[in-house]
Design brief:
There is one protein chain. The chain has 280 residues and is an all-alpha fold. 79% of the residues lie in helices and 0% in strands. Helix 3 packs antiparallel against helix 4.
Length: 280
């Protein structure tokens, strides 16, 4: 299983290196928005697709919806898959339909679905690492309140303060509010999971859980950058924002690969223990 884990990790790492090198190669002509930038935007989500497939397989091995960790891994994988679906839909608008991307669009169904999936994944992650036991003290209750409050206030101030709402289009208003606040919710849960469980989270689960938290943080940075640039009309396809998304997909895929390896290690130890017991 370690061999399989290493092969998968090598695969996604090589893909990341290839795309980062490609990204660097056209930054000096980014404003021209040539074929390289277009193909980069269409295809780098392949890491998200690979990570999602690995994650669904891993979630099933951990018990799927029968276990808390299985649920967390499933929803995180679904979030990755939704990100790739959103990119493919936008690519269709641009390259096939040859129209300006509408807002809201079917791509927003996928992207906002990704946000909801990450919220569910982060929620089950907090349960999987035992936050429910540590949140009983007043100190931890304060932490659990302050982190979401700070992030929600920051999201409101940066993205929604003085924002002009189009009340004739309620779906647009919902997404305008839902994107930044939804991101604040899932990163809050991830940070709470880390801060409240770092002293009790140990053993072979620790690395995987911390990488997932890092992946959610990377996704949050990518979404924050995109929303900030979009709100100020400074977004350029295949710029730094897309690089951040590429990295966030890679980190999440790495976390899911880690949990697949953990499952394999546990299975090997269980098999070895049974064999030793039978021999005795």
């Amino acid at each position: 299983m370690n061999l399989l884990k290493n092969k998968l990790q090598i695969l996604v790492s090589l893909i990341l290196i290839g795309y980062v090198g490609w990204w660097v190669s056209f930054q000096h002509v980014l404003d021209a928005q040539g074929n390289s930038t277009q193909w980069f935007g269409r295809t780098y989500g392949v890491i998200a697709l690979i990570g999602a497939i690995i994650g669904f397989i891993t979630a099933r091995r951990w018990g799927g919806f029968k276990t808390i960790l299985g649920k967390a891994l499933f929803f995180l994988s679904l979030g990755l898959l939704a990100q790739e679906a959103g990119q493919l839909i936008l690519a269709y608008y641009i390259n096939v339909a040859k129209i300006q991307i509408p807002y809201p669009s079917w791509g927003d169904v996928a992207y906002f679905g990704s946000t909801l999936s990450y919220i569910c994944g982060a929620y089950y992650l907090t349960k999987a690492v035992g936050v429910k036991f540590t949140i009983k003290t007043n100190r931890y209750k304060i932490i659990a309140f302050i982190i979401p409050a700070i992030l929600l206030i920051a999201s409101y101030w940066v993205f929604l303060h003085n924002h002009q709402y189009d009340w004739h289009h309620p779906v647009t208003v919902f997404l305008d509010v839902g994107y930044p606040l939804g991101d604040a919710v899932y990163i809050s849960m991830a940070l709470i999971a880390y801060l409240l469980s770092r002293k009790i989270l140990g053993g072979i689960m620790k690395a995987g859980a911390l990488i997932i938290i890092l992946a959610l943080f990377a996704q949050y940075i990518a979404d924050w950058t995109f929303l900030y640039q979009s709100s100020r009309a400074t977004y350029v396809p295949a710029g730094y924002d897309d690089l951040f998304y590429l990295i966030s997909y890679f980190v999440m895929a790495t976390a899911l690969i880690r949990f697949q390896a953990v499952y394999g290690d546990l299975k090997q130890k269980t098999t070895a223990a049974k064999a030793a017991k039978e021999n005795n």
